[in-house]
Amino acid sequence: MENSLTECAKGEHFHTATPLLESWALSQVAGTTVFLKCENVQPAGSFKIRGIGHFCQQVVKEGCRHLVCSSGDHQGGVLCTGGGGGRAGWSGSRCPGISLLLKVQLHQGHGQMATSIASTGGNAGIAAAYAARKLGVPATIVLPEGTSQHVVRRLQGEGAEVQLAGKVWDEASLKAQELARRDGWVNVPPFDHPLIWEGHASLVQELKAALGTPPGALVLAVGGGGLLAGVSAGLIEVGWQRVPIIAAETQGAHCFNAAIKAGKLVTLPNITSVAKSLGAKTVAVRALECTKELEIFSEVVDDSQAVSAVQKFLDDERMLVEPACGAALAVIYSGLLGRLQAEGRLSPSLASVVVIVCGGNSINSQGLQALKAQLG
Q1: Taking the model in full, what pTM does it have?
Q2: Distance (Å, rounded) from C-alpha 289 to C-alpha 286?
Q3: 146 and 278 part of one domain
Q4: Domain boundary residue among 187, 219, 237?
Q5: Do residue 170 and residue 263 come from a single domain?
């Protein structure tokens, strides 16, 4: 473990610089060059490892011993205490939806260890488990009963302990909170924290290194808003703040679009979309703030468009991604990009378009066929 922490202290990242591939098939559909930023080939299977990995590294290096974040729609915050247990600081933060708790085992005084757990699903949980393994520490992920065995096996493959609690995410989160009351448990938010966004911003730095000049537009999917917040920060950091962002969601998981229309945060009553990886009921405050700083177009596609995009992408690029990623791909495949151009909201002659292929953990061939049958 000490070797793992030494590597962490050197600033080595848990994520990799992912390929930026030109897609002939999507370029034909879009009428301009389309590049794919392939976050689905990250070692943890999605972009989430950028932010969650960065968060975990910083927590370990800074010596925090307790990090607790409320789940659901409650107001929460981050509590950091030193080895003596005194309160070192409190940072208010809204963490809607699900809570993610990473079981980090840290050396404290007298041989004691600090630990934590996780209540999450899919990409965030896998990123947490992966980061924990790289740190040389155990991870426990709390999931609702009925979670697919595909996800459970993947988490166990990363060395995580998996606990099932309740029938919905909120009930799993309650179990996680109960466990988090134990001394030394560390809470890592899945999307709503500045360190998470800072980690995700590294994606834009890679884009600038690869492209040199800014693209005409950037397409991404929005769930809790962590990727959007991170990409927005990255665009500003590299001087690309004039690049428009097309933020895609599926109907039934459209908390960002609902917030934009209302001009304030909106909590969805339920997540009814099949794109469960987009399943935050309330978007992060920071995501809504980004709309005042950059040009962001919020677009909503239906489940059938997202799943159809997944199938077309599999046929065109030989990569299987999840419906959440299909929401972003549907911007191209369903003609939404062309509509924005026809309406004069985007330039009719875009130099290029970058689509962030965010991940593919929560899908397999059997699951894709089941979704197609379900949606007709």
Answers
A1: 0.83
A2: 5
A3: no
A4: 187
A5: no
Residues 6+ apart with CB under 8 A from 365: 320
Residue with tokens 């996680």: 176
User: Does 101 share its domain with 240?
Assistant: no
Q: Are residues 178 and 208 in the same domain?
A: no
pLDDT score at 59: 76
- With a CB cutoff of 8 Å and minimum separation 6, the contacts of 210 are 20
122-135 vs 149-157: helix axis angle to the nearest 10?
10
Instruction: Decide: residue 49, CB within 10 A, 0-12 exposed, 13-18 middle, 19+ buried.
Output: buried
Contact 18, 42 (CB under 8 A): yes
**Number of domains observed in the structure of the chain:** 2
Helices (H), the chain: 2-9, 24-30, 48-62, 122-135, 149-157, 169-180, 194-200, 202-211, 226-237, 255-262, 285-290, 303-317, 323-333, 336-342, 365-375
Looking at the structure, do residues 39 and 129 belong to the same domain, yes or no? no
Longest dimension (CA), the chain: 67
Q: What pLDDT shows up at residue 150?
A: 78
What are the backbone dihedrals phi and psi of residue 102, each rounded to the nearest 5 degrees, phi first? Answer: -95, 130
**Domain carrying residue 258:** 2-47+194-375
Q: How are the residues of the chain apportioned to helix, strand and coil, as percentages rounded to the nearest 5?
A: 45, 20, 40
Provide the CATH number for the domain around residue 304: 3.40.50.1100
Residue 101: strand, helix, or coil:
strand
Residue 103 and residue 56: Cα distance in Å, rounded?
Answer: 10
For residues 258-277, average pLDDT: 88
